Amino acid sequence: MNKKIPAFREQLTRLIALPSVSSTDPAIDMSNRPVVDQLASWLSDTGFSVEILDVSENPAKANLIAVAGKGEGGLVLSGHTDTVPFDTFGWQSDPFKLTEVDHRLYGLGVSDMKCFFPIVLDVIREIDLKTLKRPLYILATCDEESTMSGARSLVAAHRALGRYALIGEPTGLKPVTMHKGVFFESIHLIGRAGHASDPSLGRSALEGMNAVINKLSRWRSELQKAHTNPAFSVPVPTLNFGSIHGGDNPNRICGQCEMKIDIRFLPGMDMADLRADIRRTVLETIDGLDLIVEFDPVPTGLPAMHTAADSDIVRTAERLAGEPAGTVGFGTEGPYLNALGMDTVVLGPGDIDVAHQANEYLALDRIVPMKNIVREMIRHFCM
Ligand SMILES: [Zn+2]
To answer: Using an 8 Å Cβ cutoff, are 150 and 142 in contact?
Structure first.
């Protein structure tokens, strides 16, 4: 038994007190280094070899990889260190002060997903690391809630870790092996403004966008006929026309129009192919209309996740959780870990229904079952 590191409650209190908001808005984006440095200190005190990896050019962001045990294969226990932004309005306690009320622990990121690290550390302190026959990795990433830069940088570096991975995202203790992929596309049509009285004086970007919407709606119908997966509550890929802005005055021909759409696709569908399809459809639609189109210059997105149902970690997670593997409606780092050669299951103690909002909490009765799952996973894959 390692007594050098503090116990669960003290660790979680400390992690919640270290703000690590990640946001695509630079004005509220924060460093995750305080959380990573704290985890690094506890993990090295526990006997792990710890590496802190820079992510892109931003020195404020880092991933942590800690390992104990040697050899091939092994297990990765993975979580993200960042949280979503917050409004103080709505919180009944200080979001950075772990607060217990009615058998629940409240705090920003407690469920999604800072609680996972103290749970893992609590299990690890019971283990004699010299008895590990295969490596046990702890992976702590940055920017999961914004750009996924942490997970993407591991893929870019071909950073191979263990053979199997467990991500402790809030799934209510149910194993998850699939989620949809998602990407946004921004379509900017540029025409020419002119007096409303004579259409020949301009080129209407708004009318062009109307044609684009009609064409993309037909493309969506065809896509939904060709692709279904009954494991998902919405069993087809979706396309949402989320925002549109164009023109200024009723008496001017609309010179510019911009639309943003959200596409969610099933496992087995390729993000690059879909994006190319959309762009081709837009270009075909405006052919001959004398309009210019610009697409999002920095496209990003999240691949769909799918882990094979017969993988050892899926079977093991189903046995330990007492539930068949299913799907979730939110994205995770799972597809990136799968791309690195790890069969990955998402399974954690929190609930997504209380994440990303004021008064986020973790029910106390989730902690022991999650510790048991983590302990048995380590036994099965590393001992
Ligand atoms: Zn999360």
So the answer is: yes
